[in-house]
Amino acid sequence: MARSETSHATAALLLGDSRGQRDEAATKRFVELADDIGLEVIAEMWSAAPAVSAPGALWRLYALREWILTAPRELAEMFATGQRRITSEGLGLDEILAGVELPAGPDEVARAIDEILAGAFRGDVVIALLRAAAFVRMCAEGTADSEAATRLRQFAKDLKDAAVSHRHGGLD
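and the corresponding structure tokens:
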């Protein structure tokens, strides 16, 4: 089996239709996969895959989790700043969809990404990807660095496009 086929097969297995069939122990192992085997191993398996594919989407979710775990204060501040900028007149859709407890501190953003990954593993892949996209969009609005904001907007678009693809027939 070629590397790209293995990449797609492993990701598809993890994201397979599993509504209600995954126990808490398996879900915890999935969420903490990068902690156990290392982000480098995940990167080697999935980082070269297109964004709108099962391995590409999983790579982005795990990379986001790693970023949150290594810079929780920075991400919490970016999210909170983005939230203030976007939702100055009330609740915004991204704020609601991201599902981060407010006020958004380091613990809240870390909990949110773990819940997002758990949802993907349990079969709510579309919702998980849309939640992650909303979180990243809020962070894009919360950074003063225009280059970082551009990269984050693309990251959010990739996640949203993967969600749409999955909704319309699945990620390959």
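(Above: one complete record from the training split.) The CA atoms of residues 146 and 161 lie 22 Å apart.
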